[in-house]
Design brief:
Layout: H1 2-10, H2 17-22, E1 26-27, H3 38-41, H4 49-70, H5 72-96, E2 102-103, H6 107-123, H7 129-145, H8 153-167
Antiparallel strand pairs: 1-2
Amino acid sequence: MAAIFLVELATGAVRNDARLLRLGALPDSGEIGHEYWRLITFGFSHWDLTHLLLNSVLLLILGLIVERRAGTAWLLLVFLTASMASGAGILFKHQLWPSQGVSLGASGGLFGLLGAALVLAFRVPSQTKFARMRLIIVLAAGVTYSFFPGVSMIGHIIGLVVGTAMAFLIPRATARPVVADA
């Protein structure tokens, strides 16, 4: 994400819809033609430095939780699947209600990781109530943030649903508590 943001900086794409579209953001018109690669690239592009930093911190926190409990393969699978599904949902919404602008960012994948982390925390009996409560607080904050203007609630919801569902596919033998109770 940081490397892509450096490209955004170098090309003047930060906070610039037209240039962000050229770099792979989703158009809020809902029309992508046959450019299905945008379902991947939009999740790695960011509007500005604040957006990038917030998503990077959340990816670090939630990514470590899911990776430690389920492994790197599941981390990548959940993040990418939730991100692409949220992109598809965003496009569908904009097919029905087109608007101006772009959609971008990792939040659909992050909500997917949050859903997976919650399921995994409740599947591991030795996980403390405190660890579970922290994840619930992050969920509450994320849902609240979803109501802010310019934030894609549909992308967040779809990411959360997909990540939650995928966590049930992770074999129970794989799910394990985090040593440091993260």
